[in-house]
Each structure stands twice: as C-alpha cells, then as structure tokens.
User: Fold this.
Amino acid sequence: GENVEQHPSTLSVQEGDSAVIKCTYSDSASNYFPWYKQELGKRPQLIIDIRSNVGEKKDQRIAVTLNKTAKHFSLHITETQPEDSAVYFCAASINYQLIWGAGTKLIIKP
Amino acid sequence: DTAVSQTPKYLVTQMGNDKSIKCEQNLGHDTMYWYKQDSKKFLKIMFSYNNKELIINETVPNRFSPKSPDKAHLNLHINSLELGDSAVYFCASTTGRLKGETQYFGPGTRLLVL
Assistant:
C-alpha cells in the first residue's frame, strides 16, 4: 500500500529565512498531494495542494513542488514569520483516503 | 456557522467506561472520517463512511464502533475505555472519495482516560 515519508521531523529556522519540508510517496497511482498546517491545540487545516498533472503551485509565501518521476513533493515557505510556527503534514491521496506523513514541527526563531 | 463540529470538546473518564463522541458536518459532503492523534501528533485514520456506508475500517480494536445515521453525521462509540485510548480524536469530511479532495476537520475531542 501507499507509504508517505516526511522529513525533517523538526525544523528550526530564523525568522525571515526560508523553510523546506520534503515528502516521498511510494504508490505512483497517487494523484493528489495536500499540505496541512496544525497550530498548537487546533485542527489541521489545508494550506496548499497540488495534483499530479501540475509540477508547481504557489500561493503568496508558500509553494509546493511535485516530482512525479522521483515520487517526491516539497513545501516551501519563504520569509517565515512567527505565525508559521506549527506542525505541517503532507499527504498523498489513494483510493478513498489520504495517507499522511508523520508531520514536521516548524519552529521560527525570533 | 461551523462546518464540521464535534461534541464534546473535552472528555475525562475512568478506565472501563463507555463513551461516545458525535460529529456533524453541514458542508453537504458524502464522506466522513475518524482520526486518532496521539501525543506524537501522528494522524491515524480509524474509519471512513461514504453515504452512510463503511468504506475504510483500519486495524482498530472492536471496542470502537462508528455509526452513521445519515451522511451528515458520524458518531464514534468506545466501549471499555483503556489508558491507551487517551488521544485527540478528529472527525473530518470531504466531498470526493476517489479523486482526492480537501478534508475539513472538526475541532477535535480531547479524551483523557484515567
């Protein structure tokens, strides 16, 4: 079955710097790759997603890239701000469900 | 105007008790899920229903029983609660089941078993 690996588990960056979180998936049939942000004590919320027919998608300071051949996709956050501190989850869609990565705790240092 | 709601928000109970968590979505979605998130933050899918039909049933103890009275509601009943059941339980819903669509999460139910 599908397996999603996410790295790193923790990422600490200086405010204003960029952050990159990477995920790999195993099933080439996966066709939808969302990223969710979960702030402390809150619910996971979608921040950006990409479908398998697109290589890159951008929304203000966040972007996602997808390499179908290598089966990996990445989240890029530029000009990080304190409110970017959260746990970020990647996921890959297969059949009826999302297969989730283990999460990355992003810490923004002032 | 909450899209996905859960009750209760907090649940503290003794080992051995039986408890229920309720979930409702007003988005008109066909598919609903229950997730368990433990202290390490990993999101583990437990069940999924599509139009009141069970479509995903992961390896979950049979003490956990979902029930979907209609496609807007998915409840979770837990019998004989154990310490290891302590976690945050999230309900989620989505419109599509095959193509892959956004999942909308409820606020979570924080269950503590003493």
